[in-house]
Amino acid sequence: MWELFVALAAWILSVALLVLPQILAVPYLIYRYQGAQLSPEALLADKTLVILLVSGILPAHLITLGIAWAVATRFGKIPIKEALRWQWGSRTSILKPIGLAVVLFALAWAITFAFGGKETDIDKIIKSSKAAALILAFLAVATAPLVEEIIYRGILFPAWQQLTGSKIAVIVVTLSFALPHIPQYRANLGVISAITMLSLVLTIVRARTGRLLPCYVIHLVFNGISSVLIVIQALFRLNAESPPPDVTPTIVWWLLGML
């Protein structure tokens, strides 16, 4: 029970840290707007503010990694690879998680388009400027997969598994990953459905293999595909007078967990 309590505390702190970018942007808001009441749409139109918010994801991720290290290794008493099960399973090759990631990406995109939905704040941020899009693309592969896999499948899942067994742990962790994003994407059922699907598959992989590394590779490749699309779209804008068609599926950016 103590292990679950500590794991839940780490998860709650990781969710709380999602507001860090907004906190870091407060001095700019005070200087720029001097207390004026603005709508979210007006704030998202401020390119400098958007870049500050996006950049603030990095320190939030780094702090989360520090918390995860302390919890998983008990402040260095356990080797990190052993604590997180950061190995390949005996029957796992790198080609399997890569292939699964490609399939999941295609399914997520199909689900998003099938259900449709309104434009989200993440979509607006991606379209706001090349700088914001490129920073997001970088974070999507540099820190987001590592942070989320360690928190959810590395710390939270084994704690629940020890108490309730694998089946219930899969359900609980899947929902724990998806539920915090529902208020953000309540107008887009496709995104919510795809989030839940991806979370379920990643957690099942963790349960079946007993390893975290395959989950990380799936997550990394999934995000990497989207990052390539984001970079292409951003670079296209360098030589285009009008914005190009949006080729990025909304689903991937919930992985950044920033709004």
Written account of the structure:
With 259 residues, the protein is mostly helical. The protein is built from 14 helices and no strands. Helix 9 crosses helix 10 (130-142) and helix 13 (189-209) runs antiparallel to helix 14. The longest helix is centred in the last third of the chain and has 24 residues, at 213-236. It is globular, with a radius of gyration of 19 Å. The model is unreliable at 241-259 (pLDDT under 50).
Q: C-alpha Rg, in Å? A: 19 Å
Please state the structural category: mainly alpha
Note poorly predicted spans.
Answer: 241-259
Distance between the termini: 31 Å
By DSSP (H or I, 4+ residues per run), the number of helices equals: 14
Strand content: under 5%
Major β-sheet annotation: none
Quote the average pLDDT: 86
Strands, count: 0
User: What is the helical fraction, as a range of percent?
Assistant: over 70%
**What's the helix-strand series?**
HHHHHHHHHHHHHH
Q: What would the principal axes of the Cα set say about the shape? A: globular
